[in-house]
Design goal:
The complex is a heterodimer of chains A (127) and B (286). Helix content of chain A is 63%, strand content 6%. Chain A is mainly alpha-helical and 127 residues long. Chain B is α/β, with parallel strands linked by helices and 286 residues long. The longest helix of chain B is centred in the middle third of the chain and has 17 residues. The chains are: A mainly alpha (127), B alpha/beta (286). At the A-B interface, α2 and α3 of A face α5, α7 and β14 of B.
């Protein structure tokens, strides 16, 4: 986990995103315990209230849940939920910025499509 | 609600007004960054809260009780300060014994435990310690005191980076187990930026702002780009400072971000707490 204080994104959101990423990639599998606010707070030198705020974001999204007296656990179905969410954000996060940069560089639609195809070919060859 | 209430405090030293009618409060259960430039009045206020000096006007109220010359508040607040108020020829282990006689809430076991973590030799006399270890002794004493309000005035002065990390770790662990008010006055702003929940910034004897760190970082930002575009973007905004880099202009702004105009060449970047502090306090600085 790594927090970047110099980017324009509140720390609690960065914590939520990093935890989410670890859940998505399987570091914390479903129905297992994630680190406590205490552990994260001490490891990253961050106020525990900030860490809790980040965790509560994931609780609201039903990605983690609290087991009374035991801590926070990854919810069943969390991975599918995260994938769904990220697919929904894919256009805004990647395609929109790609098109914006392409227009600055005066690149045509066809050129972009060719590049995307090249990317796919490259990936197929390297596998 | 429990708090330290600073009410209309004024303190003058020969012709200099160190604190000018200062009013604000430290709420119970939060970690505060108490920031200000050299000579801003931080230590003066800390000394008044600790009953070491007295205000000319106003009062400090701790949990609804007036603090002035009141022994009761000594079990409520402790200030670790930059000046050495200890008998410098006493051994550290004897210092701990004396502190435990003065303070009911002093946990001497914890003090020895923290000393071990820092490799502080408790058989040495205070004056035989290096500058860094003198700080370590003082903050060890403060961490082992179980009072609801604890003030650290420059706690990491002379500490190497490993010991600073250890201090922040111990502070946060302690805070998790035992929520209380922690007030940290320091010049190493970035080191505590994520640890503190709220900032009190004083400048020239007045409170410049009191705000949660989240809100503060959310409202402070930097706009950069060609001069004319920056100037027109800043027209209706609260600009707290400017920098120039050839034709590139940077403006530091406090307030709501408005969307960039279409086809704009401007860039918006975040501003960290240290930069914000510098920009807010550099006007009329030295």
């Amino acid at each position: 986990m790594y927090i970047n204080p110099n980017i324009d994104k509140p720390i609690f959101i960065q914590i939520a995103e990093q935890l989410e990423d670890s859940i998505f990639t399987g570091t914390y599998p479903e129905e297992t315990k994630i680190p406590s606010t205490n552990e994260i707070s001490v490891l990253l030198n961050i106020n525990p209230h900030t860490v809790l705020k980040g965790m509560n974001m994931l609780v609201d999204q039903e990605i983690i849940y609290k087991k009374r007296g035991l801590g926070m656990f990854v919810k069943e179905g969390a991975v599918i939920k995260i994938r769904q969410k990220r697919q929904n954000q894919f256009y805004d996060q990647y395609i929109a910025t790609l098109l914006e940069e392409a227009s600055k560089l005066q690149m045509s639609k066809e050129e972009i499509i060719t590049l995307i195809e090249r990317g796919y070919d490259h990936e197929l060859n390297s596998n | 609600m429990n708090s330290i209430l600073i009410k209309n405090i004024t303190k003058r030293y020969k012709g200099v007004t160190a604190l000018d009618n200062v009013s604000f409060s430290f709420e119970y259960g939060k970690i505060y960054g108490f920031l200000g430039r050299n000579g801003a009045g931080k230590s003066t206020l800390i000394n008044i809260m600790a009953n070491r000096i007295f205000a000319d006007e106003g009062e400090v109220v701790i949990d609804q009780v007036s603090a002035k010359e009141n022994m009761e508040v000594h079990e409520k607040i402790f200030c670790m300060s930059e000046v050495d108020l200890y008998d410098t020829s006493l051994k550290i282990k004897d210092q701990f014994k004396w502190i435990s006689r003065f303070y009911d809430s002093f946990d001497i076991e914890k003090a020895f435990d923290i000393s071990r973590k820092f490799n502080l030799d408790t058989n040495k006399r205070f004056k035989a310690l290096s500058k860094g270890y003198q700080s370590i002794f003082k903050l060890t004493a403060a961490l082992a005191l179980n009072v609801p309000y604890i003030v650290f005035d420059e706690p990491v002065l002379g500490l190497d980076v490993n010991h600073r990390e250890l201090f922040y770790d111990l502070l946060l662990k302690d805070y998790e187990n035992n929520e209380r008010t922690i007030i940290i006055a320091t010049h190493l702003i970035e080191e505590i930026a994520n640890i503190i929940e709220e900032v009190v910034l004083i400048d020239k004897g007045k409170v410049l702002l009191q705000e949660s760190v989240d809100t503060l970082l959310g409202t402070g930002y930097c706009v950069s780009g060609p001069e004319q575009e920056v100037v027109s973007y800043c027209r209706d905004k609260n600009v707290i400072g400017n920098d120039e880099l050839g034709n590139l202009k940077l403006a530091y702004i406090l307030g709501e971000k408005s969307p960039l105009p279409h086809g704009s060449h401007l860039q918006i970047t975040a501003m960290n707490l240290q930069k914000l502090f510098v920009k807010l306090t550099e006007k009329g600085g030295n």
